[in-house]
Amino acid sequence: MSKAVYCEKCSKEIKFRGDLVTATLFFVIVAYHEDCYVKDLKGFRGLFLDNQPLNGFLGNFLFVAAVLVSIGFAFGSMKWVSIIALLPVLYRIYSYFRFERKLEK
Ligand SMILES: [Zn+2]
Q1: Residue 102 alpha carbon to ligand 1 centre in Å
Q2: Which domain holds residue 69?
Q3: pLDDT tens figures, 42-52
Q4: What is the signed CA dihedral for 3, 58, 25, 96, rounded to 10 degrees?
Q5: How far is the CA of 12 from the centre of ligand 1 (A)?
Q6: What sections of the protein cross the membrane (predicted)?
Q7: If you measure from the C-alpha of residue 23 to the centroid of ligand 1, how many angstroms do you get, rounded to a whole number?
């Protein structure tokens, strides 16, 4: 497994976690430099790029909220809600292990 994380836009290595933005593009998780993410959001790809980074403050907040929702519904009669709520949780975990874990803070 390669240790380096490369930017989706400029293909250069992303070296620090503070410079990393992960987001979904067509349901695929991609990594960006912070600046490159902003540029891509404004460009053509912005149409398909989630404008909510997975690893930002709101991403973490949504992660916690999704975990609570999925636990809450798992014991009720509407278990399908917990499955849907788990999707962003899985995205967030994947983003962490695929990209964030490899970078220094
Ligand atoms: Zn870049």
Answers
A1: 17
A2: 5-102
A3: 998 888 888 88
A4: 20
A5: 6
A6: 54-74, 80-97
A7: 14
Count of structural domains, the chain: 1
Helix (H) or strand (E) segment spanning residue 16: none
Measure 89 CA to ligand 1 centroid, in angstroms. 25
In 3D space, the residue among 51, 54, 52, 18 whose CA is nearest the CA of residue 33 turns out to be 18
DSSP secondary structure letters along 32-68: EEHHHHHHHHHSGGGGTB-SS-TTSHHHHHHHHHHHH
Pairing of strands 20-25, 5-6: unpaired
Query: What are 51-97's pLDDT values in tens digits?
Result: 889 998 888 888 999 999 999 999 989 999 999 899 889 999 999 99
